[in-house]
Amino acid sequence: MSKKILKITQHREFSVPSTPWIMKQTWNDLLFAHWPVRVNEIRDHIPSSLTVDEFDGFAWVGVVPFHMSKIRMRLLPPVPFTSSFPEINVRTYVKYKGKSGVYFFSLDAMNHLAVFMARKFFSLKYYYAHIKHYRKSGNHNYESKRMKKDKVLASFIGSYKPTSKPYRTIKDSLDYWLTERYCLFCIDKDYLYRGDIHHLPWELQHAEAEIVENSMTLPVGIHLSSEKPILHFSKKMEALLWPLTKED
């Protein structure tokens, strides 16, 4: 399957790295919930070397709950107890020297070892959280709580489901802009790094959601509007990841 994924690259903004990928993941039952924000509302929370990417004059903040599975390193089988767990990330979109990518404000996962490894080897802002994800009456029910002792630091409680048939995004559309991102940027010891990612084009579905509670952005000082977010659902995506490379 990895060879098939690598053969389809025409949907990308820039080429796939020539070096071998190091990790494979499967992302399941994703909800993309996106809110428009003014650039100045998030500028101070993003490294100064990165440009905040905009669509129609707005930056966008996404809250993305999903379930990871089949996580494995290249040429190795999945590691027991670390190959499957729920996750929710908070992200925005940035550019560096013309390359568009993702910048993560936080990533919460219900796996202590995965959090440790991601922080150590990918310099990502992972946190351990208590997460429940289950299906009932056609809905995906999701509850995430990042705790410190008895205090809830960040939480997401809601349910969601797709409401349309799968479709491929059209280039230059907002759907495409929000989802077709093939690298991430992060800071480690004041150096900027890029992590390349590759997968097939997204198959999205329109979605509806009932978000009961969402304080995922509050730890970084970002307040989302009370307006309904733009929602997309994706059933499954297999992705290849490359090691971080230092940017000039």
TrEMBL record:
Family annotation (Gene3D superfamilies): Acetoacetate decarboxylase-like
InterPro entries referenced in this protein's UniProt entry, alphabetically: ADC_dom_sf, DUF2071
SUPFAM superfamilies: Acetoacetate decarboxylase-like
Top-level lineage group: Bacteria
Entries under Pfam families matching the protein: DUF2071
UniProt name for this protein: DUF2071 domain-containing protein
Organism: Chengkuizengella marina
